Amino acid sequence: MLEVVLWIFLISAGIQFLFFSVATIAIAAYKSPQLSADQLPAISVVICANNEYENLLELIPAVLKQNHPKFELILVDDRSSDETYDYAIELQRSEKLFKLLRIDETPDHIQNKKYGITIGVKAAKYNHVLLTDADCMPSGDNWISEMSVGFKDDNTSFVLGYSQYETAHGFLNHLIKYETILTAINYVGLALLGNPYMAVGRNLAYTKSVFLKNKGFGRHQAVVGGDDDLFVNQHATRKNTCIVLSPDATVYSIPKTSFGAFLRQKTRHLSVGKHYRMPDKLLLGLLTISKITFWISFIAAIMSVNQTLLISSGFLLVMVSLLTSVLALKKKTGDDLSIWLSPLLDFIYLIYYISTGLKVLFTKKVRWK
Hints:
Blueprint: H1 2-29, E1 43-49, H2 53-64, E2 71-78, H3 84-94, E3 98-103, H4 112-123, E4 128-133, E5 136-138, H5 143-148, E6 158-160, E7 163-165, H6 171-192, E8 204-207, H7 208-213, H8 229-235, E9 241-243, E10 251-253, H9 259-271, H10 278-304, H11 308-333, H12 342-362
Parallel strand pairs: 1-2, 1-4, 2-3, 6-9, 7-10
Antiparallel strand pairs: 4-8, 5-10, 6-8
Helix pairs in contact: 1-6, 1-10, 1-11, 6-11, 6-12, 9-12
């Protein structure tokens, strides 16, 4: 029995070490695409908002002052009952780059946010569409231009960007930021290795033509969530996808301030995973199971197996590979996560992931807003 525990630890540690090492190499070797100013494509920025008036007061001016040759900003007001509509109406009268779309009722066959994005993309003047959320903020005035370089040729239909959460006090903020960068290591690393399986809608671009060609969100239109990762999972490939990593291409999001709100958000995100392509479900399942068994078997082995040096060495290799991958992504994106808490956060993340996974199993209905 003790030998079984040791072998489980060594195998799971080997999988974790291999993945983080390969991801680190891919991220460290990444070089951002380069386009001259006259090569940058025109961009339609689409934002869906439901009662986000306070956030929009900051986000919309930040987008409208972007240093990009040609762009428009489309706000889809999704049934807001606050001051969003009045603010947007006045802005539309004075700002030529701004367009307001109002949704008063959503059809039953499609989820609210997906309907909002569909309306926004269809109304886009330009073929290249850049998406973000109402509670986000570009890192600077070059966000649109930095993301648009991902459309480096006519074959590129998807551009995957990076989004981090703002720094705040408290342990929850550390956990949120760690979960964000760990998720990014997965989807950025695998995309750079030729398998783009997801993205985050807070910083995602694709062409209007690929959206319309594939009939928008298709068979997933009634699924709550997945307006970003399911669309990418279904249609992004090695040949039509580009990654853009740089501090200027990053957006910042407002983090949740309670564990309950964070858990509800992640329940929604995890619930769409069952709709991924089978190869991606198998790969992500392997990585998840290996992380769970790594920590459980490590604790069991270190307490019962007389192989302290071997077990400690395996644990150290995994932690070093994890830290180097975090450092590599931090360097490319400007993320300010404190790496020294990573081993503790990785263990806490395990508990959170198991808890969230169980909640997903027993939650019959999730919602956007």
